[in-house]
Design brief:
- There is one protein chain.
- The protein is mainly alpha-helical.
- Helix content is about 45%, strand content about 5%.
- The chain has helices at about 25-30, 55-75, 85-95, 110-125, 155-165, 205-210, 215-225, 230-235, 245-250, 255-265, 275-295, 315-325, 330-345, 350-360, 365-375, 385-395, 410-415, 420-425, 445-450, 465-480, and strands spanning about 10-15, 35-45, 80, 100-105, 130.
- The chain has a 5-stranded parallel sheet with strand order 3-2-1-4-5.
- Helix 1 (about 25-30) links the parallel strand 1 and strand 2.
- Helix 3 runs parallel beside helix 4 (about 110-125), helix 11 packs across helix 16 (about 385-395) and helix 14 (about 350-360) crosses helix 16 (about 385-395).
- The longest helix has 23 residues, at about 275-295.
- The protein is globular.
- It starts with 10 loop residues before the first strand and ends with a helix.
- Bound molecules: flavin-adenine dinucleotide.
- The site of flavin-adenine dinucleotide has 27 residues, from helix 9, helix 11, helix 14 and helix 16.
């Protein structure tokens, strides 16, 4: 494939952002047709309103290290720079004689605005700027309802996305690139201090994940061969690895959704047609979340449904801290929150349970949960995170009805029937029999003694009673239900 307009004698800069990969990278592919290539990653400034959280930074550190190695092998090392992207790009263009700057588009409104400004300033400075799609299957500003509006309900959105047809095949990685003659100074990744120190809390993350494009491809390969088998049912069982765990790789742009869909279609997979369809629809939820964010830039700050603006949220720092630490006394909630803390990731079913518990049982504003997830998730995503929270809290587009309040005991018994998931992340309950593992407070004394559980000492008593908390949540909802 050739990109029209590439000047084969000139130098092009590729500005990497949330697309830390070589394959299926349209900007890199197009720029590699030039005589020489300058890849650059510009560290976001403190003025950016929502910097990555701790877990996201840990991932970024690993991902940039891998990208840097890959680009060096390709022939053109990555330049790391901090500062105003426009000034960094202009300086690099001066140093290398580059005539063009290429990038893949970002879709969060804050970056879209910033990119538009950088683009116009670069063009004014005499540079050619070309931007490309790549992080999504669709351009979120282009998909419109029949009446020209944006979608607020998932199913018609999904149908419209499917109607666009199968995405074109992914691009290969360029075979080689040439660095410009000018010697370029790069900042040292270690100086960016993205990796936590004092304390280094990242052992559980390193044991679980391999950031970088190769790590993404290896997860994809094993998922399409075997992980997809029984996905439609198994995706709800948190103790089995029946989901792809590609979310952090997608969040950092180490892999694209079309690479995933093409790999799935090409593989002799063990999954059924239903497994594949359900999986594609989950990729569709990611697309839908981005569509929502583009059309509601303050998705992480404002209720999608303004009726929730007067919702009587409670301020309760002690309950919030218990939830964050996984000490609520509800084993499935605590297991999820500890999985998040230890590994930087949480199973989707359990995300729904813990989000429901915070926003309904504890009546704590979903924004506080969203912020905690933003800081602790390796897959923290500007669209899927607030969309997920608003969906569970009831304030979101196409949201779960507010009155559907998850019972954490029944959810645990249904999706973790033998308690394997709870035992993994709440070891103090590891010898509790399955019949009581999701409600240890109902266990008779002899079982508590036999399992070494002293409620209130080795494991907390429930911080709220389910029935009373449910009634309180429904009463809070009744105050806003009839508002216009
Ligand atoms: P798989 O089941 O293998 O799905 C494949 C891909 O589809 C995922 O990697 C993801 O990109 C996408 N996907 C799956 N489910 C959803 C969904 N419900 N919404 C949007 N995309 C989806 N996902 C994030 O990527 N980042 C977040 O910050 C995030 N925050 C969430 C917060 C809450 C409260 C909830 C309920 C969900 C959130 N999700 C988020 C969605 C979902 O939980 C994760 O995408 C999923 O658990 C990732 O695991 P996986 O890659 O194994 O998923």
């Amino acid at each position: 494939m050739q990109f029209d307009g590439a000047d084969k004698t000139a130098t092009a800069i590729v500005w990497f952002r949330s697309d830390l990969r070589l394959a299926d990278n349209a900007a890199l592919w197009a720029a590699s047709e030039h005589a020489s290539l300058v890849p650059v990653y510009v560290r976001a400034l403190a003025s950016q309103s929502r910097p990555l959280g701790g877990a996201g930074n840990w991932w970024l550190n690993g991902s940039l290290a891998r990208l840097s190695e890959s680009l060096s092998s390709l022939g053109s090392p990555l330049v790391l720079a901090s500062g105003d992207p426009f000034l960094v790009l202009c300086t690099l263009a001066d140093q290398t004689g580059a005539s063009a700057v290429y990038w893949n588009r970002r879709h969060d409104p804050e970056h879209m605005e910033a990119d538009a400004l950088v683009k116009s300033r670069l063009i004014e400075s005499g540079l050619v700027v070309r931007s490309f799609p790549g992080q999504l299957l669709h351009e979120p500003t282009r998909l419109k309802t029949g009446s020209g509006g944006s979608y607020r309900v998932y199913t018609p959105f999904w149908r419209a996305l499917e109607a666009q047809g199968y995405p074109p095949p992914p691009l290969p990685a360029p075979a080689k690139a040439t660095a410009p003659k000018a010697e370029l100074l790069s900042e040292a990744l270690a100086d960016w201090a993205l990796h936590p120190t004092r304390p280094d809390w990242s052992n559980g993350l390193s044991a679980t994940w391999t950031p970088g494009e190769a790590g993404a491809q290896s997860r994809l390969a094993s998922f399409v061969l075997t992980g997809i088998r029984n996905y439609a049912e198994g995706r709800d069982v948190p103790s089995v690895e029946n989901t792809s765990r590609l979310s952090p790789h997608l969040a950092h742009g180490e892999i694209t959704p079309r690479q995933i869909l093409h790999a799935l279609a090409a593989a002799q997979t063990e999954g059924s047609e239903r497994d594949r369809t359900v999986f594609r629809k989950e990729i569709g939820w990611r697309e839908f979340s981005w569509h929502l964010l583009v059309n509601q830039p303050k998705l992480a700050q404002e209720n999608h449904n303004p009726r929730f603006d007067t919702f009587p949220w409670r301020a309760d720092d002690a309950a919030l801290a218990a939830w964050q630490k996984g000490e609520t006394g509800y084993p499935i909630v605590d297991a999820g929150m500890r999985q998040l803390w230890q590994t930087g990731w949480m199973h989707n079913r359990v995300r729904m349970i813990v989000a429901s518990f915070l926003s309904k049982h504890l009546l704590i504003d979903w924004r506080q949960g969203e912020a905690w997830f933003w800081d602790t998730l390796v897959d923290a995503d500007a669209a899927s995170n607030p969309a997920g929270w608003q969906w569970v809290a009831g304030s979101g587009a196409d949201a779960a009805p507010y009155f559907r309040i998850f019972n954490p005991v029944l959810q645990g018994e249904k999706f973790d029937p033998d308690g394997t998931y709870v035992r993994t992340f709440v070891p103090e309950l590891s010898t509790m029999p399955a019949s009581f593992i999701h409600k240890p407070w109902e266990a008779p004394d002899k079982i508590l003694i036999a399992s070494g559980t002293r409620l209130g000492k080795t494991y907390p008593n429930p911080i709220v009673q389910h029935r009373a908390a449910r009634d309180r949540a429904l009463s809070a909802y009744s105050k806003i239900k009839d508002a216009a």
